[in-house]
Amino acid sequence: MGVRAQAQSLNSRPRLRPTRTAAPYGFLAPFIVMFGIFLVYPIVYSFLISLSHWQSGHLVFRGLFQYRLLLEDGEFWDSLLNVGIILVVQVPIMLGLAAVFASLLNSRRLRGRAIFQLGFFLPVLIDMVAYSLVFSFLLAPNGLLNHFLGIFGLPHINWLNSATWSKVAIMLAMTWHWTGYNVIILLGAMQSIPTEIYEAASVDGANPVRQWASITLPLVAPILLFESVLSTIGTLQLFTEPYILTAGGPEHSSMTPVLYLYQVAFQQFHFGYASAIAFAVAILIAVLSILQLRVSRVRATL
Questions:
Q1: Looking at residues 230-256, what average pLDDT do you find?
Q2: For residues 99-120, average pLDDT
Q3: 205 φ/ψ angles, rounded to the nearest 5 degrees
Q4: What is the CA radius of gyration of the chain?
Q5: Residues sharing a CB contact under 8 Å with residue 141, sequence separation 6 or more, in sequence order
Q6: Cα–Cα distance measured from residue 189 to residue 224, given in angstroms and rounded to the nearest whole number
Q7: CA 176 from chain center: how many Å?
Q8: Residue ranges of the domains in the chain?
Q9: CA-wise closest residue to 86 among 166, 179, 180, 196
């Protein structure tokens, strides 16, 4: 048999086609089932509850009735105002401190940087309930902070029972707990910047401050944006600190949307209205996150 005949016989043979099997779907099935049971189903059921009302032990469809009540609920809007004040004041301060501390830790002149990095990150490892309880003792009327104020002849501050200082107390606790988390992320971004850029800037006569403003800050700006989005989401979901420190008081001056949701659901047992609050907060978080990303893209194009 010639070479041409052998080639024709090979081409005439049926080619093996890959067959689809159910094995990949079998491996994915446990995750899909658990995902549907513990995430998709609760979200769908919660949305249905937000559109319904319990009557004689049964759900009665009421449409957007719960959401119309939410628009007229002054306490809910007060909680949004409270968390908005915390967001506008605390997040910039925290990110600013994180940028400064990360720059100091990135200095080659600093010895024992690993120890300082661990010291900044340790607060993140402490449970939120535990550190909130500690701050409740520190900020008590006879607490340690007022004791230090008395040593310097300063008047005591009613941290936890004042409409203004209760917000400040929550901001202090949050800043202590989360600054180190942002420091470590920013430090990783700063350490990834090539040293040749700083060496070239030094040759051109740029001092360390100018290098930080012209090189470090622009290059870590995307990381700062990422941290600001995470901080916005976390602040809008604020619950543990106000629940333990102030319980939303005095007179709801430190009430947050999630704390208000908790009170409506588990103290007043209005689960449909609480579900409406949850979806309203989720939509607000999504809108603010999208706006932050859009604004950053517009600035990047300028």
A1: 92
A2: 86
A3: 95, 15
A4: 28
A5: 156, 158, 161
A6: 10
A7: 15
A8: 22-63, 71-301
A9: 166
pTM (global) more than 0.70: yes
- Please give the sequence-ordered ranges of beta strands (E in DSSP) within the chain, or none if there are none: 52-55, 58-61
Token code pair at residue 235: 């602040």
Fold of 71-301: MetI-like fold (1.10.3720)
Coil, strand, or helix at residue 77? helix
Neighbours of 130 (CB within 10 A): 10
Q: Give the span between the Cα atoms of 105 and 117, in whole angstroms.
A: 7
Token code pair at residue 157: 């501050």
d(CA 216, CA 207): 13
How far is residue 90 CA from its own chain's centroid?
A: 13
Q: Residue 284, SS3?
A: helix
181-232 residue pLDDT tens:
999 999 999 999 888 888 898 888 888 889 888 889 889 988 998 899 999 9
Q: Quote the CA–CA distance of 189 and 219 in Å, as a whole number.
A: 8
* 204: Cα within 13 Å, side-chain hemisphere: 11
